[in-house]
Specification:
Layout lengths: L10 H12 L15 H14 L2 H7 L8 H15 L6 H14 L5 H16 L3 H13 L7 H21 L29 E6 L3 E6 L8 E5 L3 E4 L20 E2 L7 E2 L2 H9 L2 H4 L3 H7 L2 H16 L4 H10 L17 H9 L10 H21 L2 H4 L4 H21 L1 E9 L4 E11 L7 E2 L5 E5 L5 E5 L10 E2 L10 H12 L6 H4 L13 H4 L4 H9 L3 H18 L6 H18 L5 H6 L3
Parallel strand pairs: 9-12
Antiparallel strand pairs: 1-2, 3-11, 4-8, 5-6, 7-8, 10-11
Helix pairs in contact: 1-15, 2-15, 4-5, 4-6, 5-6, 6-7, 7-8, 12-17, 15-17, 21-23, 22-23
Protein backbone atom coordinates (compact mmCIF):
# COMPACT_ATOMS: atom_id res chain seq x y z
CA UNK A 1 0.00 0.00 0.00
CA UNK A 2 1.12 3.55 -0.58
CA UNK A 3 2.38 5.44 2.44
CA UNK A 4 2.51 2.49 4.83
CA UNK A 5 1.36 3.56 8.27
CA UNK A 6 4.35 4.07 10.54
CA UNK A 7 5.69 0.98 12.25
CA UNK A 8 5.37 1.62 15.98
CA UNK A 9 4.86 -0.50 19.06
CA UNK A 10 1.45 -1.99 18.18
CA UNK A 11 -1.39 -3.06 20.45
CA UNK A 12 -0.58 -6.77 20.12
CA UNK A 13 3.09 -6.39 21.07
CA UNK A 14 2.29 -4.09 23.96
CA UNK A 15 -0.26 -6.48 25.39
CA UNK A 16 2.23 -9.36 25.21
CA UNK A 17 4.66 -7.22 27.24
CA UNK A 18 1.94 -6.39 29.76
CA UNK A 19 0.87 -10.02 30.02
CA UNK A 20 4.41 -11.12 30.84
CA UNK A 21 4.43 -8.52 33.60
CA UNK A 22 0.95 -9.09 35.06
CA UNK A 23 0.24 -12.80 34.81
CA UNK A 24 2.03 -13.55 38.09
CA UNK A 25 -0.52 -11.33 39.89
CA UNK A 26 -3.42 -13.48 38.69
CA UNK A 27 -4.75 -16.65 40.34
CA UNK A 28 -3.01 -19.73 38.96
CA UNK A 29 -0.46 -17.55 37.18
CA UNK A 30 -3.14 -16.58 34.62
CA UNK A 31 -3.76 -20.13 33.44
CA UNK A 32 -7.41 -20.34 34.50
CA UNK A 33 -10.54 -18.18 34.80
CA UNK A 34 -13.17 -18.59 37.49
CA UNK A 35 -16.86 -18.76 36.61
CA UNK A 36 -17.94 -15.84 38.79
CA UNK A 37 -15.83 -13.30 36.88
CA UNK A 38 -13.36 -12.45 39.67
CA UNK A 39 -10.33 -13.07 37.47
CA UNK A 40 -11.79 -10.92 34.68
CA UNK A 41 -12.43 -8.05 37.09
CA UNK A 42 -8.87 -8.29 38.42
CA UNK A 43 -7.50 -8.34 34.88
CA UNK A 44 -9.55 -5.26 34.02
CA UNK A 45 -8.30 -3.44 37.11
CA UNK A 46 -4.64 -4.31 36.49
CA UNK A 47 -4.76 -3.40 32.81
CA UNK A 48 -6.53 -0.12 33.46
CA UNK A 49 -3.85 0.78 36.01
CA UNK A 50 -1.15 -0.03 33.46
CA UNK A 51 -2.94 1.98 30.76
CA UNK A 52 -2.72 5.05 32.96
CA UNK A 53 1.06 4.77 33.29
CA UNK A 54 3.18 6.99 31.02
CA UNK A 55 5.29 4.14 29.61
CA UNK A 56 2.26 2.36 28.15
CA UNK A 57 0.90 5.44 26.40
CA UNK A 58 4.36 6.47 25.25
CA UNK A 59 5.00 2.99 23.85
CA UNK A 60 2.02 3.28 21.53
CA UNK A 61 3.23 6.62 20.11
CA UNK A 62 -0.33 7.90 19.82
CA UNK A 63 -0.69 11.10 17.83
CA UNK A 64 -3.48 13.16 16.33
CA UNK A 65 -3.93 12.83 12.60
CA UNK A 66 -2.88 16.01 10.81
CA UNK A 67 -2.77 17.17 7.21
CA UNK A 68 0.79 17.75 5.96
CA UNK A 69 1.93 19.65 2.89
CA UNK A 70 5.30 17.87 3.02
CA UNK A 71 3.67 14.42 2.96
CA UNK A 72 1.28 15.52 0.23
CA UNK A 73 4.15 16.74 -1.93
CA UNK A 74 6.22 13.61 -1.26
CA UNK A 75 3.36 11.32 -2.28
CA UNK A 76 2.75 13.36 -5.43
CA UNK A 77 6.43 13.17 -6.34
CA UNK A 78 6.33 9.41 -5.92
CA UNK A 79 3.25 9.28 -8.12
CA UNK A 80 5.11 11.29 -10.77
CA UNK A 81 7.90 8.72 -10.74
CA UNK A 82 5.36 5.96 -11.49
CA UNK A 83 3.73 8.10 -14.19
CA UNK A 84 7.04 8.71 -15.99
CA UNK A 85 6.90 7.72 -19.71
CA UNK A 86 9.59 5.09 -19.16
CA UNK A 87 7.71 3.54 -16.22
CA UNK A 88 3.97 3.91 -16.93
CA UNK A 89 2.77 2.24 -13.73
CA UNK A 90 -0.45 4.21 -13.95
CA UNK A 91 -2.42 2.47 -11.21
CA UNK A 92 0.40 2.91 -8.70
CA UNK A 93 0.70 6.54 -9.77
CA UNK A 94 -2.99 7.17 -9.05
CA UNK A 95 -2.71 5.52 -5.62
CA UNK A 96 0.08 7.95 -4.76
CA UNK A 97 -1.90 10.93 -6.05
CA UNK A 98 -4.79 9.76 -3.85
CA UNK A 99 -2.40 9.58 -0.91
CA UNK A 100 -1.32 13.13 -1.71
CA UNK A 101 -4.97 14.23 -1.69
CA UNK A 102 -5.46 12.68 1.74
CA UNK A 103 -2.56 14.65 3.24
CA UNK A 104 -3.38 17.93 1.49
CA UNK A 105 -5.27 20.84 3.02
CA UNK A 106 -8.56 21.91 1.42
CA UNK A 107 -8.13 24.41 -1.42
CA UNK A 108 -4.34 24.07 -1.29
CA UNK A 109 -1.93 23.98 -4.21
CA UNK A 110 -0.87 20.48 -3.17
CA UNK A 111 -4.46 19.26 -3.52
CA UNK A 112 -5.01 21.03 -6.83
CA UNK A 113 -1.82 19.56 -8.28
CA UNK A 114 -2.76 16.04 -7.16
CA UNK A 115 -6.13 16.31 -8.91
CA UNK A 116 -4.45 17.72 -12.02
CA UNK A 117 -1.88 14.94 -12.10
CA UNK A 118 -4.62 12.37 -11.67
CA UNK A 119 -6.40 13.95 -14.65
CA UNK A 120 -3.25 13.38 -16.72
CA UNK A 121 -3.30 9.66 -15.91
CA UNK A 122 -6.98 9.47 -16.82
CA UNK A 123 -6.28 11.17 -20.13
CA UNK A 124 -3.51 8.71 -21.00
CA UNK A 125 -5.85 5.84 -20.14
CA UNK A 126 -8.59 7.31 -22.36
CA UNK A 127 -10.81 7.82 -19.33
CA UNK A 128 -11.90 11.22 -20.59
CA UNK A 129 -14.96 11.79 -18.39
CA UNK A 130 -12.90 11.09 -15.26
CA UNK A 131 -10.16 13.30 -16.67
CA UNK A 132 -12.64 16.19 -16.92
CA UNK A 133 -13.96 15.53 -13.41
CA UNK A 134 -10.42 15.75 -12.01
CA UNK A 135 -9.84 18.98 -13.91
CA UNK A 136 -13.01 20.38 -12.32
CA UNK A 137 -11.82 19.29 -8.87
CA UNK A 138 -8.37 20.81 -9.48
CA UNK A 139 -9.91 24.17 -10.34
CA UNK A 140 -12.23 23.99 -7.34
CA UNK A 141 -9.10 23.51 -5.21
CA UNK A 142 -7.57 26.76 -6.56
CA UNK A 143 -5.33 25.33 -9.26
CA UNK A 144 -2.44 27.81 -9.71
CA UNK A 145 -2.89 30.38 -12.46
CA UNK A 146 0.66 29.89 -13.70
CA UNK A 147 -0.26 26.37 -14.84
CA UNK A 148 -3.77 27.15 -16.09
CA UNK A 149 -2.89 26.83 -19.78
CA UNK A 150 -1.62 23.28 -19.29
CA UNK A 151 -4.89 22.23 -17.68
CA UNK A 152 -6.98 24.03 -20.31
CA UNK A 153 -5.20 22.21 -23.14
CA UNK A 154 -5.83 18.83 -21.48
CA UNK A 155 -9.48 19.75 -20.93
CA UNK A 156 -9.94 20.69 -24.57
CA UNK A 157 -8.23 17.50 -25.76
CA UNK A 158 -10.42 15.36 -23.48
CA UNK A 159 -13.60 17.02 -24.71
CA UNK A 160 -12.55 16.53 -28.33
CA UNK A 161 -11.76 12.87 -27.67
CA UNK A 162 -15.19 12.38 -26.07
CA UNK A 163 -16.83 14.03 -29.07
CA UNK A 164 -14.94 11.76 -31.45
CA UNK A 165 -15.96 8.70 -29.48
CA UNK A 166 -19.59 9.84 -29.54
CA UNK A 167 -19.43 10.33 -33.30
CA UNK A 168 -17.87 6.90 -33.77
CA UNK A 169 -20.32 5.30 -31.34
CA UNK A 170 -17.52 3.98 -29.12
CA UNK A 171 -18.67 5.53 -25.84
CA UNK A 172 -21.82 3.43 -25.49
CA UNK A 173 -21.75 1.80 -22.08
CA UNK A 174 -21.08 -1.93 -22.18
CA UNK A 175 -23.84 -4.05 -20.65
CA UNK A 176 -23.09 -5.73 -17.35
CA UNK A 177 -22.24 -9.31 -18.19
CA UNK A 178 -22.63 -10.63 -14.66
CA UNK A 179 -25.65 -12.85 -14.08
CA UNK A 180 -28.51 -11.91 -11.79
CA UNK A 181 -28.21 -13.35 -8.28
CA UNK A 182 -31.59 -14.34 -6.85
CA UNK A 183 -33.10 -16.83 -4.41
CA UNK A 184 -33.88 -20.20 -5.99
CA UNK A 185 -37.11 -20.61 -4.01
CA UNK A 186 -39.83 -18.23 -2.83
CA UNK A 187 -38.67 -15.82 -0.17
CA UNK A 188 -39.88 -15.86 3.42
CA UNK A 189 -42.64 -13.23 3.64
CA UNK A 190 -41.22 -11.55 6.75
CA UNK A 191 -37.55 -12.33 6.07
CA UNK A 192 -37.25 -11.69 2.31
CA UNK A 193 -33.49 -12.24 2.42
CA UNK A 194 -34.10 -15.93 3.10
CA UNK A 195 -35.76 -18.70 1.09
CA UNK A 196 -38.90 -19.96 2.82
CA UNK A 197 -37.39 -23.45 3.17
CA UNK A 198 -34.93 -22.38 5.90
CA UNK A 199 -35.64 -22.42 9.63
CA UNK A 200 -33.64 -21.57 12.74
CA UNK A 201 -33.33 -24.38 15.28
CA UNK A 202 -31.54 -24.65 18.62
CA UNK A 203 -29.96 -27.45 20.62
CA UNK A 204 -27.46 -27.92 23.40
CA UNK A 205 -24.96 -29.47 21.01
CA UNK A 206 -25.14 -26.96 18.15
CA UNK A 207 -26.55 -23.84 19.79
CA UNK A 208 -28.56 -21.98 17.14
CA UNK A 209 -28.35 -23.44 13.67
CA UNK A 210 -30.10 -23.39 10.30
CA UNK A 211 -31.99 -26.35 8.78
CA UNK A 212 -33.91 -26.86 5.54
CA UNK A 213 -37.47 -28.16 5.35
CA UNK A 214 -36.99 -29.38 1.77
CA UNK A 215 -34.32 -31.17 -0.22
CA UNK A 216 -31.71 -28.79 -1.61
CA UNK A 217 -29.38 -29.32 -4.53
CA UNK A 218 -26.01 -27.86 -5.48
CA UNK A 219 -26.43 -24.49 -7.13
CA UNK A 220 -29.43 -23.44 -5.02
CA UNK A 221 -29.28 -19.94 -3.53
CA UNK A 222 -31.11 -19.83 -0.20
CA UNK A 223 -29.97 -16.57 1.44
CA UNK A 224 -29.20 -13.19 -0.12
CA UNK A 225 -28.37 -10.66 2.60
CA UNK A 226 -27.17 -7.07 2.68
CA UNK A 227 -24.68 -6.23 5.48
CA UNK A 228 -25.72 -4.27 8.54
CA UNK A 229 -22.33 -2.53 8.38
CA UNK A 230 -18.94 -3.00 6.79
CA UNK A 231 -15.30 -1.95 7.03
CA UNK A 232 -12.91 -1.22 4.17
CA UNK A 233 -9.52 -2.85 4.74
CA UNK A 234 -6.79 -0.23 5.06
CA UNK A 235 -4.77 -1.46 2.08
CA UNK A 236 -7.68 -0.50 -0.20
CA UNK A 237 -8.27 2.99 1.20
CA UNK A 238 -6.86 4.64 -1.93
CA UNK A 239 -8.84 2.43 -4.32
CA UNK A 240 -12.37 2.18 -2.92
CA UNK A 241 -14.94 4.41 -1.29
CA UNK A 242 -14.84 4.11 2.50
CA UNK A 243 -18.65 4.19 2.67
CA UNK A 244 -20.07 2.23 -0.29
CA UNK A 245 -16.86 0.18 -0.82
CA UNK A 246 -17.15 0.49 -4.60
CA UNK A 247 -14.00 0.85 -6.67
CA UNK A 248 -13.58 4.49 -7.77
CA UNK A 249 -9.82 4.72 -8.08
CA UNK A 250 -9.79 7.73 -10.42
CA UNK A 251 -12.36 9.98 -8.72
CA UNK A 252 -11.97 9.46 -4.96
CA UNK A 253 -11.95 12.60 -2.82
CA UNK A 254 -10.49 12.85 0.69
CA UNK A 255 -12.02 13.32 4.09
CA UNK A 256 -11.24 16.83 5.32
CA UNK A 257 -10.61 15.69 8.88
CA UNK A 258 -8.29 12.68 8.55
CA UNK A 259 -5.67 11.31 6.18
CA UNK A 260 -7.26 7.88 5.77
CA UNK A 261 -10.83 7.89 4.43
CA UNK A 262 -11.72 8.67 0.81
CA UNK A 263 -15.13 8.82 -0.83
CA UNK A 264 -16.58 8.48 -4.32
CA UNK A 265 -19.11 11.28 -3.84
CA UNK A 266 -20.28 14.01 -1.52
CA UNK A 267 -23.29 11.84 -0.64
CA UNK A 268 -21.09 8.97 0.56
CA UNK A 269 -18.93 11.39 2.54
CA UNK A 270 -22.05 12.89 4.12
CA UNK A 271 -23.52 9.49 5.05
CA UNK A 272 -20.24 8.34 6.57
CA UNK A 273 -20.02 11.51 8.63
CA UNK A 274 -23.61 11.15 9.82
CA UNK A 275 -22.95 7.62 11.04
CA UNK A 276 -19.60 6.06 12.00
CA UNK A 277 -17.00 8.54 10.75
CA UNK A 278 -18.02 11.36 13.09
CA UNK A 279 -16.46 9.21 15.84
CA UNK A 280 -13.70 7.46 13.91
CA UNK A 281 -12.23 10.38 11.97
CA UNK A 282 -9.83 11.59 14.70
CA UNK A 283 -8.56 8.11 15.59
CA UNK A 284 -8.80 5.89 12.53
CA UNK A 285 -5.16 6.37 11.50
CA UNK A 286 -3.92 5.33 14.95
CA UNK A 287 -6.38 2.43 14.93
CA UNK A 288 -4.98 0.99 11.71
CA UNK A 289 -1.43 1.57 12.92
CA UNK A 290 -2.03 -0.24 16.21
CA UNK A 291 -4.43 -2.98 15.21
CA UNK A 292 -5.56 -5.45 12.56
CA UNK A 293 -9.05 -5.53 11.06
CA UNK A 294 -10.66 -7.39 13.99
CA UNK A 295 -10.35 -4.58 16.59
CA UNK A 296 -11.11 -1.94 13.95
CA UNK A 297 -14.22 -3.86 12.89
CA UNK A 298 -15.25 -4.10 16.55
CA UNK A 299 -15.00 -0.32 16.78
CA UNK A 300 -17.03 0.08 13.57
CA UNK A 301 -19.71 -2.20 15.02
CA UNK A 302 -19.97 0.04 18.07
CA UNK A 303 -19.92 3.36 16.19
CA UNK A 304 -22.60 2.12 13.78
CA UNK A 305 -24.67 0.87 16.71
CA UNK A 306 -24.57 4.33 18.28
CA UNK A 307 -25.72 5.77 14.95
CA UNK A 308 -28.57 3.21 14.84
CA UNK A 309 -29.75 4.72 18.15
CA UNK A 310 -29.52 8.23 16.65
CA UNK A 311 -26.47 9.00 18.81
CA UNK A 312 -28.55 8.89 21.98
CA UNK A 313 -26.61 6.92 24.60
CA UNK A 314 -29.38 7.26 27.19
CA UNK A 315 -31.81 5.45 24.89
CA UNK A 316 -29.14 2.92 24.00
CA UNK A 317 -28.63 2.14 27.70
CA UNK A 318 -32.35 1.81 28.35
CA UNK A 319 -32.78 -0.45 25.36
CA UNK A 320 -30.00 -2.86 26.37
CA UNK A 321 -31.18 -2.90 29.99
CA UNK A 322 -34.57 -4.14 28.85
CA UNK A 323 -33.35 -6.47 26.10
CA UNK A 324 -34.03 -10.18 26.58
CA UNK A 325 -31.33 -11.68 24.38
CA UNK A 326 -32.94 -15.11 24.41
CA UNK A 327 -35.93 -13.74 22.45
CA UNK A 328 -33.90 -12.26 19.58
CA UNK A 329 -34.35 -14.52 16.55
CA UNK A 330 -33.29 -13.03 13.20
CA UNK A 331 -35.26 -15.71 11.34
CA UNK A 332 -38.46 -14.86 13.23
CA UNK A 333 -38.17 -11.06 13.08
CA UNK A 334 -40.25 -9.16 10.54
CA UNK A 335 -37.47 -7.50 8.52
CA UNK A 336 -39.96 -5.64 6.35
CA UNK A 337 -40.81 -3.34 9.27
CA UNK A 338 -37.66 -3.75 11.42
CA UNK A 339 -36.07 -0.60 12.78
CA UNK A 340 -32.32 -0.05 12.92
CA UNK A 341 -32.51 -0.81 16.63
CA UNK A 342 -34.17 -4.15 15.90
CA UNK A 343 -31.42 -4.90 13.39
CA UNK A 344 -28.72 -4.04 15.93
CA UNK A 345 -30.28 -6.55 18.34
CA UNK A 346 -29.48 -9.33 15.84
CA UNK A 347 -25.86 -8.15 15.86
CA UNK A 348 -25.68 -7.70 19.62
CA UNK A 349 -26.65 -11.32 20.32
CA UNK A 350 -24.09 -12.90 17.99
CA UNK A 351 -21.95 -15.49 19.74
CA UNK A 352 -19.00 -14.22 21.78
CA UNK A 353 -17.76 -17.66 22.93
CA UNK A 354 -16.44 -15.87 26.01
CA UNK A 355 -16.98 -18.92 28.20
CA UNK A 356 -14.40 -20.84 26.14
CA UNK A 357 -11.70 -18.14 26.14
CA UNK A 358 -8.60 -18.48 28.28
CA UNK A 359 -7.32 -15.77 30.58
CA UNK A 360 -4.81 -14.29 28.15
CA UNK A 361 -7.38 -14.16 25.34
CA UNK A 362 -9.86 -12.29 27.54
CA UNK A 363 -7.10 -10.03 28.85
CA UNK A 364 -6.12 -9.03 25.33
CA UNK A 365 -9.70 -8.04 24.52
CA UNK A 366 -10.01 -6.13 27.79
CA UNK A 367 -6.85 -4.18 26.99
CA UNK A 368 -7.88 -3.42 23.40
CA UNK A 369 -11.30 -2.25 24.62
CA UNK A 370 -9.61 0.07 27.14
CA UNK A 371 -7.33 1.55 24.49
CA UNK A 372 -10.16 2.13 22.02
CA UNK A 373 -12.45 3.57 24.67
CA UNK A 374 -9.83 6.07 25.78
CA UNK A 375 -9.11 7.15 22.21
CA UNK A 376 -12.83 7.64 21.56
CA UNK A 377 -13.34 9.58 24.79
CA UNK A 378 -10.23 11.71 24.35
CA UNK A 379 -10.59 12.77 20.70
CA UNK A 380 -14.18 12.32 19.56
CA UNK A 381 -17.68 13.63 20.39
CA UNK A 382 -18.15 10.61 22.62
CA UNK A 383 -16.01 12.36 25.22
CA UNK A 384 -18.67 15.03 25.67
CA UNK A 385 -21.52 12.53 25.33
CA UNK A 386 -20.10 10.38 28.17
CA UNK A 387 -18.83 13.27 30.31
CA UNK A 388 -19.44 12.77 34.03
CA UNK A 389 -21.62 9.72 33.41
CA UNK A 390 -19.86 6.48 34.37
CA UNK A 391 -22.76 4.42 33.00
CA UNK A 392 -22.18 5.71 29.48
CA UNK A 393 -18.43 5.27 29.80
CA UNK A 394 -19.03 1.70 30.94
CA UNK A 395 -21.47 1.13 28.08
CA UNK A 396 -18.80 2.13 25.57
CA UNK A 397 -16.26 -0.22 27.12
CA UNK A 398 -18.71 -3.14 27.42
CA UNK A 399 -19.76 -2.80 23.77
CA UNK A 400 -16.17 -2.67 22.55
CA UNK A 401 -15.21 -5.70 24.61
CA UNK A 402 -18.31 -7.62 23.49
CA UNK A 403 -17.74 -7.00 19.80
CA UNK A 404 -14.03 -7.74 20.06
CA UNK A 405 -15.37 -11.25 20.69
CA UNK A 406 -18.26 -11.36 18.19
CA UNK A 407 -16.20 -10.06 15.27
CA UNK A 408 -13.69 -12.91 14.76
CA UNK A 409 -16.48 -15.49 14.99
CA UNK A 410 -19.23 -13.83 12.98
CA UNK A 411 -17.95 -11.22 10.54
CA UNK A 412 -17.42 -12.22 6.93
CA UNK A 413 -14.85 -11.08 4.38
CA UNK A 414 -15.81 -9.42 1.12
CA UNK A 415 -13.53 -10.28 -1.76
CA UNK A 416 -12.99 -9.86 -5.48
CA UNK A 417 -11.01 -11.97 -7.94
CA UNK A 418 -7.45 -10.67 -8.25
CA UNK A 419 -5.01 -11.87 -10.87
CA UNK A 420 -1.88 -13.46 -9.42
CA UNK A 421 1.13 -13.22 -11.73
CA UNK A 422 2.95 -16.08 -10.00
CA UNK A 423 0.17 -18.65 -10.48
CA UNK A 424 -1.25 -16.97 -13.60
CA UNK A 425 -4.68 -17.36 -12.10
CA UNK A 426 -7.41 -15.34 -10.40
CA UNK A 427 -7.62 -15.83 -6.64
CA UNK A 428 -9.83 -14.23 -3.96
CA UNK A 429 -8.50 -10.95 -2.51
CA UNK A 430 -10.19 -9.55 0.60
CA UNK A 431 -11.00 -5.84 0.49
CA UNK A 432 -13.57 -5.48 3.31
CA UNK A 433 -15.16 -7.09 6.34
CA UNK A 434 -18.92 -7.06 6.87
CA UNK A 435 -21.66 -8.24 9.23
CA UNK A 436 -24.50 -10.50 8.05
CA UNK A 437 -26.58 -11.58 11.09
CA UNK A 438 -28.67 -14.17 9.23
CA UNK A 439 -25.70 -15.87 7.59
CA UNK A 440 -23.95 -15.84 10.96
CA UNK A 441 -26.49 -18.37 12.24
CA UNK A 442 -24.95 -21.07 10.01
CA UNK A 443 -22.50 -23.33 11.84
CA UNK A 444 -19.08 -24.50 10.73
CA UNK A 445 -18.12 -27.84 9.23
CA UNK A 446 -14.77 -28.95 7.86
CA UNK A 447 -16.87 -30.63 5.14
CA UNK A 448 -19.36 -27.83 4.34
CA UNK A 449 -22.46 -28.23 2.19
CA UNK A 450 -22.80 -24.51 1.38
CA UNK A 451 -20.53 -21.51 0.98
CA UNK A 452 -20.83 -17.76 1.42
CA UNK A 453 -20.35 -15.70 -1.72
CA UNK A 454 -19.96 -11.92 -1.62
CA UNK A 455 -21.17 -9.98 -4.62
CA UNK A 456 -20.01 -6.70 -6.20
CA UNK A 457 -22.77 -4.70 -4.46
CA UNK A 458 -21.57 -5.86 -1.02
CA UNK A 459 -24.38 -8.35 -0.47
CA UNK A 460 -23.66 -11.95 0.47
CA UNK A 461 -25.39 -15.18 -0.46
CA UNK A 462 -25.60 -18.75 0.74
CA UNK A 463 -24.84 -21.05 -2.17
CA UNK A 464 -25.46 -24.80 -1.79
CA UNK A 465 -22.44 -26.78 -3.01
CA UNK A 466 -23.69 -30.37 -2.57
CA UNK A 467 -27.11 -31.95 -2.01
CA UNK A 468 -28.72 -31.47 1.42
CA UNK A 469 -31.59 -33.68 2.55
CA UNK A 470 -34.79 -32.31 4.02
CA UNK A 471 -34.44 -31.75 7.78
CA UNK A 472 -30.64 -31.48 7.62
CA UNK A 473 -28.44 -28.67 8.84
CA UNK A 474 -26.65 -26.18 6.59
CA UNK A 475 -22.91 -25.99 7.25
CA UNK A 476 -20.49 -23.30 6.21
CA UNK A 477 -16.69 -23.47 6.40
CA UNK A 478 -14.84 -20.94 8.56
CA UNK A 479 -11.55 -21.30 6.72
CA UNK A 480 -10.37 -24.78 7.72
CA UNK A 481 -11.36 -27.50 5.24
CA UNK A 482 -10.52 -31.20 5.49
CA UNK A 483 -9.30 -31.22 1.86
CA UNK A 484 -6.53 -28.78 2.81
CA UNK A 485 -5.64 -29.56 6.44
CA UNK A 486 -5.45 -32.64 8.64
CA UNK A 487 -7.75 -32.97 11.64
CA UNK A 488 -5.18 -31.99 14.27
CA UNK A 489 -4.28 -28.78 12.45
CA UNK A 490 -7.94 -27.88 11.97
CA UNK A 491 -8.75 -28.45 15.62
CA UNK A 492 -5.83 -26.30 16.75
CA UNK A 493 -6.71 -23.41 14.42
CA UNK A 494 -10.44 -23.52 15.10
CA UNK A 495 -9.91 -23.47 18.85
CA UNK A 496 -7.41 -20.62 18.54
CA UNK A 497 -9.72 -18.31 16.57
CA UNK A 498 -13.27 -19.51 17.21
CA UNK A 499 -12.93 -21.18 20.62
CA UNK A 500 -14.76 -24.44 19.87
CA UNK A 501 -13.87 -28.11 19.48
CA UNK A 502 -15.11 -29.21 16.07
CA UNK A 503 -17.06 -32.48 15.88
CA UNK A 504 -18.35 -32.23 12.30
CA UNK A 505 -18.64 -35.24 9.98
CA UNK A 506 -15.11 -34.69 8.65
CA UNK A 507 -13.64 -34.62 12.16
CA UNK A 508 -15.78 -37.47 13.49
CA UNK A 509 -14.91 -39.72 10.53
CA UNK A 510 -11.41 -38.29 10.05
CA UNK A 511 -11.80 -37.52 6.35
CA UNK A 512 -8.51 -37.29 4.50
CA UNK A 513 -7.04 -34.36 2.61
CA UNK A 514 -7.91 -34.03 -1.08
CA UNK A 515 -5.29 -36.37 -2.54
CA UNK A 516 -6.01 -38.99 0.11
CA UNK A 517 -9.73 -39.24 -0.60
CA UNK A 518 -11.19 -42.41 -2.15
CA UNK A 519 -12.14 -42.39 -5.81
CA UNK A 520 -15.68 -42.83 -7.09
CA UNK A 521 -16.96 -45.84 -8.99
CA UNK A 522 -16.43 -44.37 -12.47
CA UNK A 523 -18.48 -47.09 -14.20
CA UNK A 524 -21.48 -46.24 -12.08
CA UNK A 525 -21.19 -42.46 -11.76
CA UNK A 526 -19.13 -41.42 -14.77
CA UNK A 527 -16.11 -39.13 -14.88
CA UNK A 528 -15.35 -35.51 -15.64
CA UNK A 529 -12.19 -34.19 -17.25
CA UNK A 530 -11.19 -31.98 -14.30
CA UNK A 531 -7.82 -31.09 -15.87
CA UNK A 532 -9.45 -29.71 -19.01
CA UNK A 533 -12.12 -27.84 -17.04
CA UNK A 534 -9.49 -26.33 -14.77
CA UNK A 535 -7.45 -25.14 -17.76
CA UNK A 536 -10.56 -23.61 -19.34
CA UNK A 537 -11.62 -21.83 -16.15
CA UNK A 538 -8.10 -20.52 -15.61
CA UNK A 539 -8.72 -18.33 -18.65
CA UNK A 540 -11.41 -16.56 -16.58
CA UNK A 541 -13.74 -16.17 -19.55
CA UNK A 542 -17.47 -15.76 -19.00
CA UNK A 543 -18.48 -17.92 -21.96
CA UNK A 544 -16.45 -20.92 -20.77
CA UNK A 545 -17.76 -20.54 -17.22
CA UNK A 546 -21.34 -20.50 -18.49
CA UNK A 547 -20.70 -23.67 -20.48
CA UNK A 548 -19.13 -25.66 -17.65
CA UNK A 549 -21.35 -24.40 -14.79
CA UNK A 550 -24.47 -26.54 -15.51
CA UNK A 551 -22.40 -29.61 -16.37
CA UNK A 552 -20.55 -29.42 -13.05
CA UNK A 553 -23.79 -28.92 -11.14
CA UNK A 554 -25.34 -31.95 -12.81
CA UNK A 555 -22.30 -34.07 -11.92
CA UNK A 556 -22.27 -32.95 -8.26
CA UNK A 557 -25.98 -33.53 -7.82
CA UNK A 558 -25.71 -36.91 -9.55
CA UNK A 559 -23.03 -38.08 -7.10
CA UNK A 560 -25.44 -37.23 -4.28
CA UNK A 561 -24.43 -38.95 -1.06
CA UNK A 562 -21.04 -40.25 -2.24
CA UNK A 563 -19.13 -37.59 -0.27
CA UNK A 564 -16.25 -37.61 0.44
CA UNK A 565 -14.75 -38.52 -2.91
CA UNK A 566 -11.81 -37.04 -4.77
CA UNK A 567 -13.79 -36.33 -7.94
CA UNK A 568 -16.65 -34.73 -6.03
CA UNK A 569 -14.35 -32.36 -4.13
CA UNK A 570 -12.61 -31.38 -7.38
CA UNK A 571 -15.99 -30.75 -9.03
CA UNK A 572 -17.06 -28.55 -6.11
CA UNK A 573 -14.00 -26.34 -6.48
CA UNK A 574 -14.42 -26.10 -10.26
CA UNK A 575 -18.10 -25.27 -9.81
CA UNK A 576 -17.23 -22.48 -7.38
CA UNK A 577 -14.67 -21.06 -9.78
CA UNK A 578 -17.24 -21.09 -12.60
CA UNK A 579 -19.65 -19.32 -10.25
CA UNK A 580 -17.09 -16.66 -9.32
CA UNK A 581 -16.34 -15.88 -12.95
CA UNK A 582 -20.05 -15.33 -13.61
CA UNK A 583 -21.07 -13.45 -10.48
CA UNK A 584 -18.10 -11.83 -8.77
CA UNK A 585 -16.10 -8.68 -9.37
CA UNK A 586 -12.79 -9.41 -11.08
CA UNK A 587 -9.66 -7.37 -11.63
CA UNK A 588 -9.97 -5.57 -14.95
CA UNK A 589 -7.72 -5.79 -17.98
CA UNK A 590 -6.73 -2.18 -17.31
CA UNK A 591 -5.63 -3.05 -13.78
CA UNK A 592 -3.48 -5.87 -15.13
CA UNK A 593 -1.99 -3.78 -17.91
CA UNK A 594 -1.22 -0.51 -16.17
CA UNK A 595 -0.18 -1.47 -12.64
CA UNK A 596 2.95 -3.55 -13.14
CA UNK A 597 3.66 -3.82 -16.86
Amino acid sequence: MSDQLEEKFGGWELFDALWAKLRSELPGNGKTRDKNGTTDKLLEQLLEEEWNTPWVRDSLKLSKDMKSEDKANAARAKGNSYFHPKVKRYIEAVKQYNESLCHSEPASEARALAYANRSAVCYDLHRYEECLENIRLARAANYPERLADKLAKRELAAKQALAEEATAGRNIAKPDQKRTFALTYDANVEVPQVANCLELAESKQFGRYVITNRDLKAGDIVIHEQPTHSLLIDTYRHMRCDYCLQKHLYTLRPCEGCTVAMYCSEECRKQAQLTYHRYECPIIRDMWRLFTKIPVMAMRTVTMAIAFFEHNLDEFLLHLDSLDESTVNPFAMDWTVATKRDIYDTVHVLATNEHARDCKDVGQRIFFALVMRELLLDRTPLGVMCQEDPNKTRLLYDLLRRHLQTVPTNMHSQYYMKYQKESKNFDPAIYASACYPLLSMINHSCAPNMTRVTLPDGSCGALIIRPIAKGSQLFDNYGHHHCLQDRETRHTELMKQYRFQCCCEACTNNYGILFGLPMIDAKRYGMIDSTRIFEDLQRHELKLAEEWYPQLLKYINHLGNQYPRYELSCAEQLFLRAFEIQFKESETLEDLTFCNP
